[in-house]
Amino acid sequence: MISVSRDELLAAYDLGDRATPRVRMNFVMSLDGAVTIDGRSGGLGDENDRLAMQVLRTLADVVLVGAGTVRVEGYGGVRVGEADAAWRESNGMAAQPRIAVVSSRLDLAPSHPFFTEALEPPILITHGTAPADRVEALAEVADVRICGDDEVDPAAMVDALAAAGLPQVLCEGGPHLFGSLIEADVVDELCLSLSPVLVAGDAGRIARGAPEAAHRMRLVHAIPAGDLLLLRYARDR
Ligand SMILES: NC(=O)c1ccc[n+]([C@@H]2O[C@H](COP(=O)([O-])OP(=O)(O)OC[C@H]3O[C@@H](n4cnc5c(N)ncnc54)[C@H](OP(=O)(O)O)[C@@H]3O)[C@@H](O)[C@H]2O)c1
């Protein structure tokens, strides 16, 4: 069994220059391309995938997700462990990454664990014509940022996060948010865990909802971890 250590992964996923804004995606996918099993991603990952996810969070300034993932996964309480928090502080970073969500309709309850379990108010990214009553309700529990007039503009979002001192963005999905980030060509990296299972069924792909176009990527690493493969691809600009 091939095993990987946290230190190995911290070196393998090192970002180098932390000042230049960067959007790094993280997904787990089955060998046959399914993004979920039983409607969620959890069943696809194993301890090696979870270790890689912790390392990616440890290296991020902000962890970003789409509202669909928050609703379906009961997503909340994102934080790194004590050793990772100490590592971050010793490397000049805040102990914990911020968390952020992208939503247009703002169909998110202020009582959702995403808000109530956050150490600091999460950042809520929306646009200028989002429902005003929802903006008001969610402004009680989140730091609302308007990025775009009628829809969220991904490039404006990356700029706003960088201006807030959060240039290193780790996006943990989901597929619709990934599709819109690909379409806007703001994706710099894809960190993909290839899970050693065949799922079949009707699960979707890791990106959807955006027009088809080829955005060339180059391989940075392929690390076997047990039967799982940790792939790191960077945008070939
Ligand atoms: N395998 C994995 O690694 C992985 C990772 C994450 C999620 N998932 C799975 O993916 C599924 C959820 O998929 P999804 O595609 O619905 O999730 P999603 O991309 O997280 O969320 C889509 C929602 O995000 C908001 N959004 C995304 N892009 C936007 C944009 N450019 N402008 C404004 N709002 C935007 C909208 O929210 P509003 O509707 O609120 O306007 C939209 O409905 C779940 O089953 C989850 O388990 C898998």
Protein model, in words:
The chain is of the alpha/beta class and 237 residues long. The protein has one domain: Dihydrofolate Reductase, subunit A, CATH 3.40.430.10. The chain is 27% helix and 23% strand. The chain contains eight helices and nine strands. It has helices spanning 6-12, 47-58, 67-73, 82-90, 113-116, 132-138, 154-163, 175-183, and strands at residues 22-30, 62-66, 98-102, 123-126, 143-146, 168-171, 189-195, 217-225, 228-235. The protein has a nine-stranded mixed beta sheet, sandwiched between helices. It is globular. The model has no long low-confidence stretch (mean pLDDT 97). The structure holds NADP nicotinamide-adenine-dinucleotide phosphate. NADP nicotinamide-adenine-dinucleotide phosphate binds at residues 27-28, 35-36, 39-41, 44, 65-69, 72-73, 102-105, 107, 151-152, 172-177, 180.
Secondary-structure map:
Layout: H1 6-12, E1 22-30, H2 47-58, E2 62-66, H3 67-73, H4 82-90, E3 98-102, H5 113-116, E4 123-126, H6 132-138, E5 143-146, H7 154-163, E6 168-171, H8 175-183, E7 189-195, E8 217-225, E9 228-235
Parallel strand pairs: 1-6, 1-7, 2-3, 2-6, 3-4, 4-5
Antiparallel strand pairs: 7-9, 8-9
Bound molecules: NADP nicotinamide-adenine-dinucleotide phosphate.
